[in-house]
Design a protein that fits this description.
Layout (H helix, E strand, L loop, with lengths): L1 E5 L5 E6 L15 H14 L1 H5 L3 H6 L2 E12 L1 H5 L7 E10 L3 E10 L5 E13 L10 H6 L1 H4 L20 E7 L13 H17 L15 E8 L8 E8 L6 E8 L2 E10 L9
Antiparallel strand pairs: 1-2, 2-4, 3-6, 3-8, 4-5, 5-6, 7-9, 8-11, 9-10, 10-11
Helix pairs in contact: 1-7
């Protein structure tokens, strides 16, 4: 169950979950990164309540859609050490930058009672015409309402890998298929599904000794940062190849690409807790 309310100026959405058990299908009592992305997605969509006042919903209903293109997700120690699915959590959703065709949304995920921060997310969305499949401008009412955010510098988010992967990298590949539980109401793969594909890849790779530091049970290695950049969409029954490799300069980072046939779909990086890995570095 989630309750959502707006700040007095209508520009911050406070989304409160009484508990997080719906995002823990295995009933472990803890969230994993896939569950965290489910929380972020649901709160982020509810954050669109604030946008409705300024014409974005109208623009979307007239043949455009807002698509996630890149995301930066910091995961803090409290996520692993303190947060449980029985605790109420609150997400604060706001817009921190507005351009002609895109905006950056920030989400802070907190334990409600203590207000301890468990995750901070920056996500860039682009408004796309569904016929031409090209970016389209926001309604003037939206831009005017967020005029201050148009003047702010856009946060630096993940960019496309310049070299993927390096020719001498040891690769681990995992094949999977988009299943019915992976898709949203638009028949596209949910953001959390991409994290699941990458998590499954690194899980099997670690068990098979594909990486020098991340070995065995990946739950022993906390993830502190996830960065993603999207190029294309996935739909039901798409056949995927997830390729992973260890960063040679930073072996506590694992990079991923997701492809279907010869088309790039997404690139992603998991950064694991350096201090936790300190004795192995």
């Amino acid at each position: 169950m989630m309750d959502c309310k707006l700040s007095s100026d209508g520009k911050i959405a406070y989304c409160t979950f009484n508990d997080l058990s719906q995002f823990d299908p295995d009933k472990t009592g803890k969230l994993d990164p896939v569950g965290l992305f489910m929380v972020i997605r649901e709160a982020g969509e509810s954050g669109w309540i604030m946008h409705d006042r300024y014409g974005v919903a109208t623009a979307i209903s007239k043949g455009s859609g807002a698509f996630l293109v890149t995301s930066w997700v910091r995961i803090y120690p409290a996520f692993y050490s303190y947060l449980s699915t029985k605790m109420p959590a609150q997400c604060e959703v706001s817009i921190v930058h507005v351009g002609r065709t895109s905006f950056v949304q920030k989400t802070d995920v907190k334990i409600k009672d203590s207000e301890e921060l468990v995750s901070t997310v920056y996500a860039q969305f682009v408004l796309v015409n569904l016929v031409s499949r090209r970016p389209t401008r926001f309604p003037e009412s939206f831009v005017s309402a967020y005029i201050e955010q148009t003047k702010l510098k856009k946060p630096t988010l993940h960019v496309r890998f310049s070299n993927l992967p390096p020719f001498d990298s040891k690769l681990y590949c995992h094949r999977t298929v988009v299943s019915p539980c992976d898709i949203d109401v638009y028949n596209h793969a949910k953001n959390s599904s991409y994290i699941k594909y990458c998590t499954d890849c690194v899980k099997f790779g670690a068990l098979e000794g594909a990486y020098s530091l991340i070995k065995g049970n990946i739950h022993n290695y906390p993830i502190t940062l996830i960065t993603l950049v999207f190029f294309n969409e996935l739909v039901l029954h798409d056949d995927l190849m997830v390729t992973s490799w260890e960063d040679k300069a930073k072996p506590f980072q694992i990079h991923f690409t997701i492809r279907k046939k010869d088309k790039d779909i997404m690139q992603c990086t998991f950064t694991f807790d350096v201090e936790h890995l300190g004795s192995k570095l």
